[in-house]
Amino acid sequence: MKKFLYMIGILVFFTAGSVFAQTTQELRIGSFLSGSIGQGQDVWYSVRATQAGVLTVFTESNIDTYLEAYDAQRNLITENDDGDDLNAKINILTQANTTYLFKLRGYSESVTGSFRIFADSKAITELRIGSPVSGNISTGGENWYSIRAVQNGILIVETSGSTDTYLIAYDEFNNYITADDDSAGNGNAKVKIPVVSGKTYLIALRGNSNYAAGAYRIQVSSPAAPSALAVGSFLNGNITQGGEYWYSVRAAQNGFIIIETSGNTDTYLEAYDENYNLIASDDDSAGNGNAKVRIQVSAGKTYTIALRGYSGVTTGAYRIQASVPAAPVVLNVGSFLNGSIAAGSEYWYNVRAAQSGYITVETSGNTDTYLEVYDENYNFITSDDDSAGSGNARVRIDAVAGKTFYFLLRGYSSETTGAYRILANSQPYPAPAPITVGSFLNGNIQYDDEIWYSVRTTRNGRLTVETTGSTDTVLDIYTSNYQHIERNDDNEDYNARIIINANANTTYIFRLTCYSPGPYRIYAIME
Questions:
Q1: What distance in Å separates the CA atoms of residue 173 and residue 525, rounded to the nearest whole number?
Q2: What is the pLDDT of residues 87-119, one digit of tens each?
Q3: Do both 261 and 166 map to the same domain?
Q4: Which of 9, 268, 380, 418 is the most buried (most CB within 10 A)?
Q5: DSSP class of 216
Q6: Measured between alpha carbons, how far is residue 57 from residues 31, 80, 138, 209 in Å?
């Protein structure tokens, strides 16, 4: 049971049988205190908020500080490491006439040194959709606003006027979301924030420099209803200064959808998932200032696309279209295909594993190529640029017999063009060395080695396989048909250990790799 005892200026915590006593110093709003942190020391402060608003507590020092904020019931509100440089900074929403506690420490127990800690409070103004608010920013000042979301989606906060403004968006727990300087044009700022219904979001507004000051207007809006963009079709549009245009794309099947613009206008694209999380953005991948994003999609899901000019003053006509990649070309293991890359183009291949083992796909030629690999559900596995030398790409993946893998080939940049050859090879996994339960084997592993073992169980129980020694080892465990189960790196020191509930009369396969070479011992036990 946790108890809190209060004595004059003393805050005592009883936690898990240990007692920590610490003097709490009053830190008044608009003032600062100087102090010094000893090794492993916590320094506590209390701040009484006189108004509802945003309370900012921050340090100035040459040491790496860490702050935690608590409410009057000693519930942790938020914490921060590096607000400015190595100094900690916390912003919290406060109620009037309420006391908050702040714990200051070094980032690590070895941090020591002097510091100053400040407290500042700002009134907060609520922003509502469709209701602009006028304000004035003073030199070095900061004004705060709050927005309460009434539904899931995107909210756009932007300034207008002749003052060069800067916006920073936080969630209600002071977690940074995004910031902007000039996206609204003419020195005005604009941020787009994904919001959840019922949550409150904070906006800090300041001048873009310590010298910027003047009048401004700030407003919040939600995007216009997105225009439906069907896969395989296009829409024409025209960008006005500071304008933003929204589209929705519905996926008919798992895979990828490509959204791109064409024309003479320098465009910028952002893609959001159905929960309005940003998943991709691009400026010039389609060449000549046109943008292109490729997004991984799930059947039946709707994705939202935001289109704007590259800068707040960009204007002009554009065309936006949605497409799916061409059907993958079958690339048989042990064979190759020739092709030619056009600027900004992508080429898909599929490889089916006839056996469990490694599949290697690589390019050859004088063209600088790039490869990406996806599993049969289009989950990303790996990518490569130059592993095959001379600008050629090479990837090697673990493949389970009967599975199909997808390989995306493109030029290293959107301007890359030229001929290439792509080929696929496979290699079975090495025969594993058997380890008898209750015994061990000694070995020596080098960089890039893969050493395989198998363990055959005779009963149900808890199977432990681990390494000992001073070599930094890694273990992977597979079923007998090489379906991956689990990986472990560092259990004790640099040794690896895997523990599973094993079935009787079952074979498990283990792959041993390393981060450093050297001797090791591997053993298996059942409990």
A1: 47
A2: 998 888 888 899 999 999 998 888 999 999 999
A3: no
A4: 268
A5: E
A6: 10, 10, 20, 21
The answer to whether residues 183 and 203 belong to one domain is: yes
**pLDDT score of 173:** 76
What is the tens place of the pLDDT at every residue in 382-437? 999 999 999 999 999 999 899 999 999 999 988 899 999 999 999 999 999 999 99
Q: Is 198 left (phi over 0), alpha (psi -120 to 50) or beta?
A: left
| CB within 8 Å of 73: residues ≥ 6 apart | none
| Residue 348 pLDDT class (50, 70, 90 cuts) | very high
Please, are residues 512 and 473 in contact by the beta-carbon 8 Å criterion?
A: yes
- Distance, in Å, from the CA atom of 496 to the CA atom of 179, rounded to the nearest integer, reads 42
Is residue 8 located within the same domain as residue 115?
Answer: yes
- Other C-beta atoms lying within 10 Å of the C-beta of residue 444: 12
- Same domain, residue pair 161 and 83: no
Report the amino acid identity of residue 159. T
Looking at 121, 136, 165, the residue that finishes a domain is 121
d(CA 369, CA 375): 20
Query: What kind and span of H or E run contains 436?
Result: none
Location of structure tokens 């702050």: 67
Q: 96 pairs with which residues across the strands? A: none
Same domain, 205 and 146: yes
Domain hosting 33: range is 4-121
Q: Which token pair is 229?
A: 């963009």
Which range is least confidently modeled, 6-15, 61-70, 127-136, 283-292? 6-15
**Strand 380-384's sheet: what is its strand order?**
329-330, 346-352, 404-411, 369-374, 380-384
Cα separation values, 341 from 305, 322, 347, 411, 422, Å:
27, 21, 8, 7, 12
Residues 69 and 115 both lie in one domain: yes
Q: Give the end of a domain, one of 276, 308, 323.
A: 323
Q: Tell me: do 424 and 452 sit in the same domain.
A: no
Tell me how far apart the terminal alpha carbons of the chain are, to the nearest angstrom: 36
Contact between residue 353 and residue 360 where contact means Cβ atoms under 8 Å apart: no
Q: What CATH number is attached to the domain comprising 108?
A: 2.60.120.380
Shared-domain flag, residues 345 and 390: yes
Check residue 13 and give its pLDDT: 37
Give me the amino acid identity at 465.
V
Residue type at 298 in one-letter notation: S
Average pLDDT over residues 142-165: 92
Q: Cα separation of 367 and 341, whole Å?
A: 8
Rounded distance, CA 131 to CA 220, Å?
7
- Give how many domains the chain has, as a whole number: 5
pLDDT in tens, 39-76: 889 999 999 998 888 899 999 999 999 999 998 888 99
